[in-house]
Write a structure and sequence with these properties.
Layout lengths: L1 H11 L25 H32 L8 H35 L7 H23 L1 H4 L7
């Protein structure tokens, strides 16, 4: 029931590209069946969310480095441009710290919503993965030069 409600909510937001997560975005089996245990799905999401969160951190580092290394000739660009680029680096780094806090609090809420259910841990790991996936997509949109430097991602 909870999955159906979530799906309906996502369908209503499909005009927003970062909100809609299709099944293909999941690295793990969609349904628990006789051949796939909850523990296996949880382990899959744990590995996937660790990798995706690492990817988000790497993108922030590369974007910050790209901003920091961008041409900054005070004689040509002026001190205002140089300061704005420095501000962008600072705010991007701060945003990653804030995003991690948001991610953890939000996914805790998702996990607690399962109350005493055995799916709580799996829901937490899946939430961590999907939240990181959205962060990576947003970083790639907002900082395309640094995102394109290495590897393919959803």
């Amino acid at each position: 029931m909870r999955r159906m409600i979530s799906s309906l909510i996502l369908i209503s937001f499909c005009g927003l590209p970062l909100v809609c997560l299709a099944q293909k975005d999941s690295p793990c089996p969609a349904e628990i069946g006789p051949t796939v245990s909850n523990a296996e799905i949880r382990e899959c999401y744990t590995k996937a969310q660790i990798a995706m969160n690492k990817r988000a951190d790497e993108l922030v580092l590369r974007a910050a480095a790209s901003l920091h290394e961008s041409p900054k000739d005070k004689a040509i660009d002026g001190p205002v441009i140089v300061q704005l680029l420095e501000n962008a680096v600072q705010k991007l780094n701060e945003s990653q710290v804030t995003w991690r806090s948001y991610r953890d609090q939000y996914c805790d809420a998702v996990s607690f919503s399962y109350t005493t259910g055995s799916g709580s841990g799996t829901a937490m790991e899946e939430c961590l993965y999907k939240t990181a996936l959205l962060r990576v997509r947003q970083l790639r949109l907002d900082f395309p030069d640094s995102a394109a430097a290495k590897g393919h991602l959803h």
